[in-house]
Each structure stands twice: as structure tokens, then as C-alpha cells.
Write a structure and sequence with these properties.
The protein has 209 residues and is of the alpha/beta class. It has helices at residues 41-48, 58-71, 92-98, 136-145, 163-167, 183-193; strands at residues 12-16, 21-24, 31-32, 80-84, 102-106, 121-127, 147-156, 179-180, 196-201, 204-208. The protein has a single domain (12-208), classed as 3-Layer(aba) Sandwich (Rossmann fold), CATH 3.40.50. Helices cover 26% and strands 24% of the residues. It starts with 11 loop residues before the first strand and ends with a strand.
């Protein structure tokens, strides 16, 4: 077994419940579910199809604004962005487009437009996506290559704080959540990318190219 973020090995068992095991990498501190205990793509889609996230859901829009509002300080009007992992009901793109930004969509299940990976962007957003990634190293590096100089990779995912709270954390109850990040883990990613990092909210981090 090796870490899906930095490929170090071997990780150590961090926690185990009656459904899954959770391992932690000694090098990057990522906590992850081993491959054989992750859901198949059909099971993941069944979970995603149940989500009620859309632009008419004010609570969801308010949630996304934790990322949108600070992002506007880093990008110019008319900036071209990519919403990576836009989901079954794209919402963040609607919020940003209403405020004068241009946003392409990509989602492996709902908007599988591979042409986005031939473009360059001023910003890329990934809201509640990174916890679902089975191969975060490859995805992070692919997204980073799409950014223009000075571009922003804006990530929202709930952060690991400590082992005790992890054991009772609602976030690990979702079987489609397979990777869990801490502030230390994101600092490791920034160092690998040679990126500037801004922790703008307890669950939001920006990497600046």
C-alpha cells in the first residue's frame, strides 16, 4: 500500500470503524481509505444523484460563498475559470458568472468535457471534491498545469483537526469520501507545487501559482 498523494509507503493505521479502515501517510499526513474499501463508480454516482445542491438552494449558495467571496479578491472581472467537479447541479459557476466571470465545467460523471484540459485558466475551483479523489496526486498536478501564472487553485474541503474528533466526524460517514486533508497536508502540497498558500477559511485553501 502507498499513499495516493505522495506515493510514500508504508502508511500506518489511523482509525478503523465497523465499515472501513483509515490510514495516514507519515510523509504528507494525508488520511485515506485503502483502495479495496472504496466504493465503485456506480455506488459513487448513486450517492451523488441524491444530492439536492442547485442554485435555488440558498443554504448551499451561502456555503459556497465561503470560497467565492475571498476568491474575488484574487481574480479580475472577466477572468476565465474552471469548476472542477461541478456535480449534478452546477451552482458555483452560476454564482461566479452572475458576477462577471467566465466558468467552464468539468465533472467526470456529469460534465465529462475533456477539452477543458487543453486550456489555461485564471482560476480553478474544487468545492467538496478533493475528499472524493481516488488519485489526488495526479489530479492536483493536472489542475496545477492548467493555471496561468498568478492563477488560483481554490479548494474547499473539511479539514482533519485531531484523532479524537476524526473518530466521531460526520465527514467519514459518507462512503464516497476517501481522502481527508489537514492544514499540514495542504502545506505539504504547496511545497511540492512550489506554490504560495493562503488558508483563507477553516475549510478553504488557495494555492497561488
Amino acid at each position: 500500500m502507498q499513499c495516493p498523494l505522495c506515493h510514500a509507503q508504508p502508511p500506518h493505521l489511523f482509525h478503523k470503524d465497523n465499515k472501513r479502515s483509515y490510514y495516514q501517510c507519515f510523509q504528507c499526513q494525508l488520511i485515506f481509505v485503502p483502495t479495496h474499501e472504496r466504493p465503485c463508480i456506480e455506488e459513487e454516482k448513486r450517492i451523488y444523484d441524491q444530492h439536492q445542491n442547485n442554485p435555488e438552494n440558498k443554504g448551499y449558495c451561502d456555503f459556497l460563498n465561503q470560497l467565492c467571496e475571498p476568491l474575488k479578491k484574487y481574480i479580475h472581472k472577466g477572468a476565465q475559470g474552471l469548476d472542477f467537479g461541478s456535480g449534478p447541479g452546477p451552482t458555483l459557476s452560476v454564482i461566479l458568472e452572475d458576477q462577471g466571470y467566465q466558468v467552464d465545467l468539468f465533472d467526470a460523471l456529469y460534465a465529462p468535457d475533456q477539452s477543458v484540459f487543453t486550456k489555461k485558466y485564471d482560476f480553478i475551483t474544487a468545492t467538496e471534491v478533493f475528499e472524493h479523489l481516488h488519485n489526488p496526486k495526479e489530479e492536483v498536478e493536472r489542475l496545477w498545469r492548467l493555471l496561468k501564472p498568478g492563477g488560483v487553485l481554490a479548494i474547499m474541503t473539511q479539514h482533519v483537526t485531531d484523532k479524537k474528533s476524526f473518530e466521531t466526524w460526520h465527514y467519514i460517514r459518507d462512503p464516497s469520501h476517501v481522502c481527508f486533508y489537514s492544514r499540514t497536508c495542504f502545506d505539504f502540497i504547496a511545497a511540492q507545487l512550489k506554490a504560495k498558500i493562503h488558508h483563507v477559511h477553516e475549510n478553504v485553501v488557495f494555492f497561488i501559482s
